[in-house]
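Could you show me just one protein sequence together with its fold in token form as a worked example?
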Amino acid sequence: MIRILLVDDESLVRAGLRTILESAEDLRVVAEAEDGSLVPDALARHRPDVVLMDVRMPRVDGLEALRRVMADDNPPPVVMLTTFDLDAYIFEALRLGATGFLLKDTPPRDLISAMRVVARGEAMLSPPVTKRLLDHYTGLRVADRAEQATKLLADLTPREREVLAEVARGSSNAQIGRELYLSEATVKAHVSRVMAKLGVANRVQAALVGRDAGLLDPS
């Protein structure tokens, strides 16, 4: 059973999300919060496996709430909700450690699938959305980020660079395995080592570093 904490200031949105999520036998909403200030207490009381949280809330917003989640000794993966596919808040959320984001009009089947993917420890961004995010993000302070990212990649082996390039393309572990002729278990091990060497919390952050370092053609 995947235990989920819903955080959104709109009660109707929370009710709709709960209905969708709990239509799946393996998903359960264990708690709801209408404001980011309530998130730390909900985490302590219910220990959810996944947090599904709105970015924009009127008092304590999703970014500040995300900071508080990441301060936990063992933070669960956090998926941010947004109305826009290129919301400026999302880029800061990814830097803070969010596993990914969903649009509020995401089809129910995809929402349910995303919770399962995130609970397994993987990022849930689809390749097209990942590409749009990364393409947009590379337009911000490119020179400064490129220098820092290049230094971070210095400790990676050639194979780890190949794996990181695929992660930056939004490929899943299975897709990376097919592309590089590796087993999924081997890919997972490589991804874990890459994230450890880069000092990032999840594969979305690793993808941003890879893109910053020029592993992909920016066009």
